[in-house]
Amino acid sequence: MGLFSKKTSKSSNADTTSLRSTGSRKESSASSLKSPLSNQFPNSAGTFTPSTPVIPEISLPKPPDPNLDPAAYLRSIYAVRERSRFVMQKAKDNRLAHFTVDAEKFDDAARFIVSIIKRDYAPDYSSIPPHGRWQHFDVGGRPRIDQLLASWGSAVDAQERTRRLIDLFLVSVLLDAGAGAKWQYKSKETGRAYRRSEGLAVASLEMFKAGYFSSDSTEPCQVDGAGLKKLTVGILARGLQVSEDNPLTGLDGRAGLLIRLGEALNNQDLFGVDARPGNMLDYLLSHPSTRASSVPIITIPTLWSVVMDGLSSIWPASRTQIDGTPLGDAWRCSSMPSSPPAEPWENIVPFHKLTQWLTYSLMAPMTRLLNVHFAGTELLTGLPEYRNGGLLIDIGLLTLEPHDAKRGLDAYYANAKRTGQDAMEVVPLFAPDDDVIVEWRAVTVGYLDALLVKVNNLLKLEGNERLTLAQMLEAGTWKGGRELAEVSRPITKQPPIMTLSDGTVF
Q: Are 219 and 168 in contact (CB under 8 A)?
């Protein structure tokens, strides 16, 4: 029997057939992971509490050569940090096109982040979970994912549980662009109202349990291509409780993402014959790059290729392209190299925020339920979105140039007249492809890396005790950005700069 085996039904007693680790998949509905987990047992919530494994060194693939295939390079995870460094260098020299940098406020930002981390986690910093969607589901201290797992009973094995959570997390992340200041979701289970990311998390979970994304009425807790194709803007609006009095920013864009996801799931190599996101688990475990040590080890570039390449068709076709290839969340920026004469790709800076957020989030169920480890997590960057970036502005490290501020305020007022938005706590407003937004997001990537070093030093953490970037995002910068926004703009709690969101960016 090989390391990975595939079952023909969801029952844990089903006959199994061998699956070679070649990446080929003949069936898709379920599989079981064998020997790495044979001496480990799930706890009552269905998650593993393993002994500390010995993880061997894993060689990662080299990034694509931008001179040979610029589109592949700009779509890779390697390019996000590498390209953002050009803008970050200008920030260090205070030569940004749209922001003034007050370098003395960098230490203030680090101390503020440390104060939040200490408040919520001291002295057990190792208990900080990596940034991911799982925590949003548990808003209000209610362990909704553990409750969901418990509701499935013992007949659903750990592999199928993981597939189902991947199904849920993927759809929930794709819905998780900025919700706007007015929208809220009232939970049908508790009666409590939630806003923003947590509101979208609770809403997507309750829709998932109600079968909104499944084509099989006997299996509501799954996502499949046929189920997504039946979605409409109206159906999604009903599930998210959107109305004239409860508007959600970018509803049409979110619906379009999910409908196009239904088509993308037809890739049977990645998502199986039943077109489920969760079937990527089988693909990843059987991939030639996956190592079978004391635990399965999947490389981040392999997971990245699934979410980036497998989902490439869901992004709006109007996004930046190179030689006809859509690049996703990647944009031209005036702060990128322009001389000596640059190639067309060189003035583009990629972020792939939702893809990174998805990658961070999908690792959690595979790690918690199957004890899968991931090699190359250091390739992922801080998320360039309005909470992390807003912290830099609200703390005073970045200040928008006056002429850009005026342009953004004019846009805010014009949009308010068009949409009936209240003109309160007015902030500059820009389109996602505006040079202000692109530059702001690029320096956010760079400053998050720099802040991680400073925060660990201030916490006096060394070696394996040092926080990872994902932990700082979870316990410090994202939360800190939100709290500063609540203090600075207590009515709307919106960021210091807003974007005209289509529901597909951040």
A: no
